[in-house]
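Whether sequence alone determines local backbone shape is best considered at the level of individual chains. Part of our work consisted of pairing the sequence of a single chain with a tokenised description of its backbone. This step matters because it turns folding into a mapping between discrete strings. For completeness, the protein is quoted in full, as a sequence line and a line of structure tokens:

_____
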Amino acid sequence: MLGWLKRRSEPPVISDEAWFDACADIRWLDRLPPGLLDSLRALSARFLRDKCITGSHDLELDDDDRLRIAILACLPVTRLGYDWLRGWSQVIVYQGQFRVRRSWHDDDTGVVTEDEDWLAGEAWHQGPLILSLEDILADLDAPYDGFNLVAHEVAHKLDMLDGACDGVPPLPDRATALRWQAIFSDEYRRFCKAVDAGEETVMDPYAAEAPDEFFAVASETFFSAPDLLAAGHPALHAELRAFYGFELVLPEREGVDR
């Protein structure tokens, strides 16, 4: 009995065939620094064991879908470690974007405003990660265009680990936290100013919505177009590289196979 329990607690084995097929579809993995692919494979196996990945509204996911989602979710924590994915256990996948109803309370007037949004993804504090399969596939089809939905939503999860969704994930010490806050505050202020002025930006203008979205959008850009982020926001790029512990090594932009 104890032997059976031990086997049940071990991560599932990802077959070579399934792993190599998934890697062929996720071209970001070709750009990982040497030695990290094995770590990512081990993390992905743990993710498949620990997280329930289910389709919503009759969407049927197969093992290949689940594996790709697991790999994409683990990519940002390849150096940080699996413990950074703690505190939640479910991934809900919609076929496409999904509608959510929002309400806002104005403290000054007491007026409650309601509206509906269409989202490609959402991360709940200590709740599920919610993703649009169509948007994930679109990101994989254009891997260097600066969009990575799963990295975006996982960045929100990392941000929430200290209990606040404010664009500041848990950091190792006070000096690092102070540097992070100074750099991100300055970069966020300048980015918002550029968006308000109608300027073209390296990152999705949605990053101007709030500091937490700025961190999430900067993270997805870091994992899909690090060269553009480094050119447009070198201080921000350096801070994210130090936090995540690695970056994808892209070819020259002109030579990227899209």
User: Anything to note?
Assistant: The chain has a mean pLDDT of 89. The radius of gyration is 19 Å. Strands lie at 52-55, 90-94, 98-105, 112-119, 121-123, 129-132.
